[in-house]
Amino acid sequence: MKKLLLTIAAILMLGTVATNAQTKTTELMIRGGFATNQFIGDDYDADGFGMNPGYNVGLELNNFFYKSVYWNTGLLFGSRGYKYEVELNKNNKTTTRFRAHNFQIPLTIGYRFDLGDGLALDGRIGGFFSTDLAANYKNTVEVMGEENTKKEKITDWDHYNRCDGGLLVGIGLWINNINLDFAYQRGFAERIDGMEGGASNFLIRLGYAF
């Protein structure tokens, strides 16, 4: 992960130099909205695994370095997680929810197509890096209508991976300075060593560019 951070930092520096040299437009945006947090992979394919609703908000930059081509980065605050629910019988049920809160740094290349009259479409692809600041794991067992809940924090776990990174793709609709953004994040890091699978997050966000 240290190598990944150094690589991201180097790309950001090169992008900043290129942007300044070209003296192109830079947009500062604030965006936020809903995230469909879940995990996919061999250890998350069983019946019962599903979405644990989350969020994604933050400040982003679009730097246009050649006509309508831009690179995007920023500092986001978001979530990742999943829900696991199994009904053992009509009187017994177990529900597990995992949610982590993290800082995220995206880095993508995009293109904006001007439709005229203040309308535009854009698409971008790249990657992201994130690190969890806090996370909790809650397991609730319901037996004959009575619930017993156990909670854990990431500080209680061994072999927990706070850092994640992976693919980020998105498309967006612009109406003047207002943006409706649809994006997908696919994390490649295992949540816990030995568990096959990673985060899968769909983001629906509303933004405004200054």
Q: What does it look like?
A:
By secondary structure, the protein is mainly beta. It has one domain (2-80, 100-130, 164-209): Porin, CATH 2.40.160. Helices cover 10% and strands 69% of the residues. The chain contains one helix and ten strands, in the order H-E-E-E-E-E-E-E-E-E-E. It has one helix at 2-22; strands at 26-40, 49-50, 54-66, 69-89, 92-116, 119-143, 146-153, 163-175, 178-187, 198-209. An eight-stranded antiparallel β-barrel has the order 1-3-4-5-6-8-9-10. The model is unreliable at 9-23 (pLDDT under 50).
Over all CA atoms, what is the radius of gyration? 20 Å
What is the end-to-end distance?
33 Å
CATH first level: Mainly Beta
Listing every helix as H and every strand as E from the N terminus to the C terminus, the arrangement reads HEEEEEEEEEE
* Mean pLDDT reading: 88
CATH architectural type: Beta Barrel
Low-confidence runs (pLDDT<50, min 5 residues)? Answer: 9-23
- Quote the beta fraction: over 45%
Please give the largest β-sheet: 8 strands, antiparallel, barrel
Briefly note the CATH topology name.
Answer: Porin
What share of the residues lie within helices?
Answer: 10-25%
